[in-house]
Amino acid sequence: MFIAMNRFRVVKGREEDFETVWRGRDSRLKGLPGFVEFHLLRGPEGEDHTLYASHTIWRTRADFEAWTQSDAFRQAHKGAGETKGMYLGGPQFEGFDVVLELTEAAE
C-alpha cells in the first residue's frame, strides 16, 4: 500500500475558499486502478496559516505513479492556478510506503 500526501499552508481567512475549491473539484480518482480512498484533512492553525493535507491511499506506488502520468491527473489539476493568493508557498508532497497496517477487521 502507498499513501500520497500534499500539505498546504492556507492563508488565515481563506480556509472556507480552500475547502470550497476541494468540495467542487472533480478529482477523477473513482474507478482508477489501485485507488483506495481520499481524505482532505484540516490541521493546526499557525499565526498566518491553517495547515491542510490531502491524503490518498493506493494499492501500490506504481498505481499512484501511473495516475500522476494520466490524463485524469492533468484534468483534475487544471484549475490549480485559480487558487493564487490562497497559499503560503506551494504544496509539499510526501509519499509513504506502508510497512505495517492494523485495522479493526484484522484484530
Explained architecture:
The protein is 22% helix and 35% strand. The protein has helices at 15-24, 61-68, 71-76; strands at residues 2-11, 35-45, 49-58, 92-97. It starts with a strand and ends in a 10-residue tail after the last strand. Strands 2-3-1-4 form a 4-stranded antiparallel sheet. A hairpin with a 3-residue loop joins strand 2 (35-45) and strand 3. It has one domain (2-96): Alpha-Beta Plaits (2-Layer Sandwich), CATH 3.30.70.
SS-derived structural category: alpha+beta
CATH topology: Alpha-Beta Plaits
CATH architectural type: 2-Layer Sandwich
Contiguous uncertain segments of 5+ residues: none
Give me some keywords for this one.
single chain; 107 residues; alpha+beta; Alpha-Beta Plaits; 4-stranded antiparallel β-sheet; 3 helices; 4 strands; 22% helix; 35% strand; globular
Summarize the structure.
This protein is an alpha+beta fold and about 110 residues long. It is about 20% helix and about 35% strand.
Helices and strands in order:
Blueprint: E1 2-11, H1 15-24, E2 35-45, E3 49-58, H2 61-68, H3 71-76, E4 92-97
Antiparallel strand pairs: 1-3, 1-4, 2-3
